[in-house]
Amino acid sequence: MSPSPGSTDTGLSSAPSPVTLESAEPARTSVWRRPRPSQRAQRTDIAIGIALAVAGAFAAELMRSASPQPLDMGAGGIEGYFLSAAVPLTLCFRRRFPLATLLATSVMFFIAGERLPLIGGANIVTQVTLFMAIYTAAAWAQDRKRFQITIIFVVVSMFIWLAFGFVRALRADEITGSGVDGLLSPYVAYVVHNIGINIAYFVGSWLWGLTAWRTARQHDELLRQAQELAEQQQGNARRAVIDERLRISRELHDVVAHHISSIGVQAGGARRVMDTNPEAAKGALSVIEESSRTAVNEMRQLLGMLRAADPDLDEEVGVSAVRAPQANVDRLPALVADASNEQLSVGYHQIGTTQKLPETVSVSVYRIVQEALTNVRRHSTARTANVTLRYLEDAVEIEVIDDGRPKHAPVGSRLGHVGIRERVALLGGESEIGPRSVGGFRVRARFPVKEQQL
Questions:
Q1: CB–CB of 27/47 below 8 Å?
Q2: Does residue 319 sit within a domain?
Q3: Within 13 Å of residue 119, how many CA atoms lie on the same side as its CB?
Q4: Sheet holding 384-391, edge to edge
């Protein structure tokens, strides 16, 4: 890389401006900074720098030994060895301080080439060091604007130095031909040869480094995207767990509260008439027995739904493979009949032509009526209640009204109302829960059905 005659591997490039190369990068790349190297990478760089320093000194000895004429090794006969080793030592910090390493390497290379052109500048190890410094700056520089300024400065400086070397060689008439006429004169061939090699070396190391930088940026973006995706998946999993818990909570509340409430009412009635009317007490106990069996069946059905992903578990947990009829609109008349007793008369009305409803809507309608009637028995003084199912053109509506008022006793946790609103909202419907202006209480829910069926 020395501008001295006879040295062809000069390492100087008349490469295109780095601004041109960098301008091809998307604007978003300027905001990305490559993470600093790890401790292990820094230790590797130190090892590489020391190994190349030893190799540089050994290469200088090989050049001195192979020379047909004695070579000047500089001050004390060791300057050539020292410079050949000092240039590669700058690579010990190449990835930690890439721009400073490039500048230091360029200065050391210039000193070696000026002091001992045939030893320092022509040493293959020192030339490789400069190319590695350029590659590292292109691949690891965090501030890309500073990198552009630095690389321009280094390239222009090396080009000027090489031009001075050509001028010195021309004045000293050091370039002589072999006596064979060629296409070009010896001097022109020398200049073209050196410039071509330098362009190949400089541009090659520069583009190699830019490719490594782009690859690192893409890898970092992929890692961030993977991390964001993993966080989104975790968030979705958490939401799914919460939604499932809410669904289970609603199902348990609707199943258990309804039947336990019925059992409580019947047990209280049986206790009051046990001595005066044993037959009525027996009837109440029969209702309690039937309600408890129904509750157990529905609990088993719910457990079976939760374990539907692995039907083999049914036998392990003792859940029968034969399910009780699932809660749906078709069972509303039976539900209303079960809710009617001496204290509460419940009527059922259907308006419109029966439609086949989506399973989710059908189950929700049943559960809403079940919860509403449970609340009437537990928290109201109502004597009558009416359940109305309306099949509309594009929706289905369920309404439960009563003629009572809230009891003085505590009105409960209101989780049933929350569950009703959640069910309706989940299916894109509308709900209305509250007292009526003419007295009593209303629970009304409307579900769109056409979109559900699509």
A1: no
A2: no
A3: 28
A4: 345-351, 384-391, 395-402, 441-448, 430-435
CATH code for the domain in which residue 343 is found: 3.30.565.10
Total domains in the chain come to: 2
**For residue range 360-395, what is the model confidence (pLDDT) as tens digits?**
888 889 989 988 998 888 888 899 999 999 999 889
pLDDT of amino acid 443: 95
Q: Which residues fall within 8 angstroms of residue 391, CB to CB, at 6 or more apart?
A: 350, 351, 352, 353, 354, 355
Supply the DSSP symbol for 78.
T
Domain boundary among 184, 211, 232: 232
What is the span of the domain harbouring residue 152?
18-232
124-140 vs 79-89: helix axis angle to the nearest 10? 20
pLDDT of res. 229: 86
Percent of the chain with pLDDT over 70: 77
Asked if residue 226 belongs to a domain, the reply is yes
Say what the pLDDT of residue 178 is: 54
Are 146 and 30 found together in one domain? yes
Q: Which carries the bigger pLDDT value, residue 419 or residue 404?
A: 404
Under 8 Å between Cβ of 387 and 351: no
Domain boundary (232, 259, 275) is at 232
Which residue is listed with tokens 């350029």? 134
CA-to-CA distance for 212 and 140, rounded, in angstroms? Answer: 8
Backbone angles phi, psi at 7, to 5 degrees: -100, 115
> Which tokens is 54 given?
């030893």
Rama region for 19: left / alpha / beta (φ>0; ψ in -120 to 50; rest): alpha
| Residues in the chain, total | 454
Give the span between the Cα atoms of 89 and 238, in whole angstroms. 54
Going by C-beta distance under 8 Å and a sequence separation of 6 or more, which residues neighbour residue 114?
A: 121
pLDDT of residue 314: 45
DSSP for 253-309 reads HHHHHHHHHHHHHHHHHHHHHTTT-HHHHHHHHHHHHHHHHHHHHHHHHHHHHHTTT
Residue 318 structure tokens: 């003792």
* Separation CA 422–CA 412 (nearest Å): 18
Lowest-confidence region among 326-330, 366-370, 450-454? 450-454
Task: Tell whether 316 is covered by a domain.
Answer: no
Q: What confidence score (pLDDT) does residue 453 get?
A: 45
Distance from chain centroid for Cα 377 = 51
